[in-house]
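This protein record is not my work; I was only asked to verify it. Where you disagree with what is written, explain briefly why. This is what I was given:
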Amino acid sequence: MSTSPKEGCAFEAGIKLGTIFHQFMGTPVSESSKASLEEAIRRAVLNQPHVVEVRVRIREEALRRASRNTFGYASLSPEMLEAEVWIEYGGTRCCGRLAYSSESSYPEMWVEFE
């Protein structure tokens, strides 16, 4: 069975978003380490095949709320993380997105084709 470029692009985007979500949840993060963690996640995903660009954002307001404790840091949680991954596969380009949905109370992932 052969995979179409559109199917391959969507699959690759899903793999990358799954990597971001499952590998980095629980990572210790503070306001002072936020930017370096965003960059580390971005660079890690850029190593994978078919990736053109990656944007990672740790939501400051969610981080601030979670790190109001004696130690001043929190574990990265789904409510904090947003990511975009651009994939090129077989001449097709798509963007996979990850963001927490307050409506479903769940991190959602989807793919948009250009």
